[in-house]
Amino acid sequence: MTLRSRFAWTLLAATVPFSVLVAFGQATYRERITRRAYAAEIDARMELGGREQCERAPRRWPRRARRAQRGRHGRGQHARGQQGRGRRQRALPRGISIFDDRLQSTWPGPPLDPQLRSELEQGAEYATRVVQRGERRLRLFARRMPWNGPCAVVLVTRPEPKPALPWTLGSLLVLSLLTMGIAYLAAGPIVRRIRRLTNQVRRARLGQGVIDTRGNDEIAELARAFAEDREALEAQMTALEDRDRALKDYISNTTHDVMLPLTVLQGHLVALRDESGSSEKNVARALEESHYLASMLRNLNAAARLEAGVPETRFDAVNINKMVERVVGRHEPIARQAGIELHFSVPESPVSVRADLTLLEQAVSNLVHNAVRHSRPEGAREERPGGHIAVILERLGEGFRIEVVDDGPGVSAAELKKISERRWRGEAARSRHPSGMGLGLAIARDVADRHGFDLRFERPEAGGFRAILEAHRSASVEENGT
Amino acid sequence: MPARILVIEDDDQLGTQIVGHLSDAGFEVEWLRDGDAARAVSVSEFALVVLDLMLPGTYGMDLLKRFRAHSDVPVLILSARDDTADKVRALKLGADDYMTKPFWPSELVARVQARLRRPDMRAAGGSLRVGALAIDVAQRAVEIDGASAPELTRVEFDILAALARRPGAAWTRRGLVEAVLDPERQGSERTLDVHVSRLRKKLGPAGGQLQTVWGIGYRLTPHGAEDS
């Protein structure tokens, strides 16, 4: 519900019960005034000689009263008066009639209305009701006088005006609806200002325009609060970004500083292995560790860039054929040392796709490294030589597919489910290899997500493990892919 | 005559290793330690340049630009900063390939060899030579060690020619099927296997060059032995 209609409905909800209450209050008040007026009139008439006349000649008194009444109302009432006189002998349809203290009609006429009678019998000072007689509404008002005798109760019958309650109620309801409409209209300017403020706040979030803080009412106050909030937030963001950048640069520089000695170390280790012969198990292990270390450093770098978000991702045309070649070349020495055959296949014509060169290469590298590490059980180097890994690049319509398959022990269905989960990095990053490639696979997944590629893992029927990275969107970019 | 390679590397230890491994692989290596010396050298005399981008500065980039201005000698970049922008810039400036540290000596040697081998293959023209096999694509004729081979069917020759176009490179079964078989009539991977085994038999002792690659398909290597 919009603010405007909420405002209007609230007003309506408040005014309707109030109107009803007022209408009923007014009706009640009118009734009380009417009753008092009747009682006062009767009292006055009886005290100003009415009682004496009535008690002296009870049978004739009403007629005289009627005559007196006619005199008061003037000539206009004459015709009706004569009519009334004509009927007087049979019944007294209205005017005044009297009853004795046992509530019997003093004058031969109709008995007292049973409802009024029972009220009076219970000791009420007066009793009244409105009755419908044909077309006309009549009020019967019976007053018990403070004396006994033939004139103990006086009944006045008069025409009753139509009830005012429905009309009052109706006009008040119309007024309520009117108020609602006015409220709806009146809320317009306020709503417009709030909308404008909303738009300004939204645009400001995108870095377009500023929040208008002019004015000194509540909405301007709100605008100022927003503006202050935004400033504080921006300052905080800038500080955080600076810190982030500093951290990323630190990681990048540290990685750089470590990569050089690590390259030299790897060279020395290879020389040591070649001198001591391939039987030297410890050197082989040291080579693997240094390879793992290098992979971890690269992943650290990649993770820092992925965490930094989109600005750190740079999309260029990447020659995927060359990339696959590089990745296989990187892991080939370690695979060969472990007795694993690592082969790759790329299409004859280069596949090119827009991607972040470093991140995509690291993702594929992690898939291959994972295959190398898991192609044989830890410590089973001699028992199970001859593992195989195949890295296959294929064109997939406009996109490409990279498949990394091995014939190692594979994973259980539960493990497959686990590594296919998205939010898995936390615990994976903490566990060290051989299962510690979790970070690598998680980074591969992040990179795939960042590129809009599809990464999935499978358990082939023949055993082993298969990782598939697929890009379905257009790979057709300018020919000289980097 | 061994190919001459120029190495521009400022780190003593790494430079020594690179020079050592490239020399062991049979190349004639010249090593320059700083950019100023490299500026003066005439790169056209070398078959390939290994250039360390050194620090994030544009030092290495300047050199690369300078080389590219008057030579198209292959340049292999060594980079330590795993930064996409650096690599993309180097590739756009005309570098042929890059390697990120740390790398294995054999990785470097393999990359240099691959880079130097490629132009030779193209120079062979209409005739492809892989190990003992000489394949004349135009004449659709095959020679084994100079002697003409038994007659090959059209499909068998196409398979051999496709494999020979990229010696040592593995073809997927699917790729080969798409390249040489009529998809409507005999287009299954099992049919391909039958053709390959017949072809292998016909090539006799050179049949060992046609190798099955696990998980992928087939490849043709210059050597009949296990390893390439």
What does this 3D model show about the protein?
The complex is a heterodimer of chains A (482) and B (228). Chain A is of the alpha+beta class and 482 residues long. Chain A has helices at residues 3-56, 61-73, 78-88, 114-121, 165-205, 218-276, 281-308, 320-337, 357-374, 413-420, 425-430, 438-451, and strands spanning 95-99, 126-133, 136-144, 153-159, 316-319, 340-345, 352-355, 387-396, 399-406, 454-458, 465-471. Chain A folds into 3 domains: 3-167; 232-310, Helix Hairpins (Orthogonal Bundle), CATH 1.10.287; 313-482, Heat Shock Protein 90 (2-Layer Sandwich), CATH 3.30.565.10. Chain A is built from 12 helices and 11 strands. In chain A, strand 10 and strand 11 (465-471) form a beta hairpin. Chain B has 228 residues and is an alpha/beta fold. Chain B has 8 helices and 12 strands. Chain B is elongated, with a radius of gyration of 22 Å. Chains A and B meet through helix 6, helix 7, helix 8, strand 6 and helix 9 of A and helix 1, helix 4, strand 5, helix 5 and strand 10 of B.
> Main beta sheet of chain A: strand number and arrangement?
5 strands, mixed
Indicate the proportion of strand residues of chain A: 15-25%
CATH architecture name of the largest domain in chain B: 3-Layer(aba) Sandwich
Gyration radius of chain A, to the nearest Å? Answer: 52 Å
Strand runs of chain A, count:
11
List the helices and strands and how they pair.
The complex is a heterodimer of chains A (482) and B (228).
Chain A: H1 3-56, H2 61-73, H3 78-88, E1 95-99, H4 114-121, E2 126-133, E3 136-144, E4 153-159, H5 165-205, H6 218-276, H7 281-308, E5 316-319, H8 320-337, E6 340-345, E7 352-355, H9 357-374, E8 387-396, E9 399-406, H10 413-420, H11 425-430, H12 438-451, E10 454-458, E11 465-471
Parallel strand pairs in A: 6-8
Antiparallel strand pairs in A: 1-4, 2-3, 3-4, 5-7, 8-9, 9-11, 10-11
Helix pairs in contact in A: 1-5, 2-3, 5-6, 6-7, 7-9, 7-12, 8-9, 9-12
Chain B: E1 4-8, H1 12-24, E2 28-32, H2 35-40, E3 48-52, H3 59-70, E4 75-79, H4 84-92, E5 97-100, H5 105-123, E6 127-130, E7 133-136, E8 141-144, E9 147-148, H6 154-165, E10 171-172, H7 173-180, H8 189-203, E11 210-213, E12 217-220
Parallel strand pairs in B: 1-2, 1-3, 3-4, 4-5
Antiparallel strand pairs in B: 6-7, 7-8, 8-9, 10-12, 11-12
Helix pairs in contact in B: 1-5, 6-8
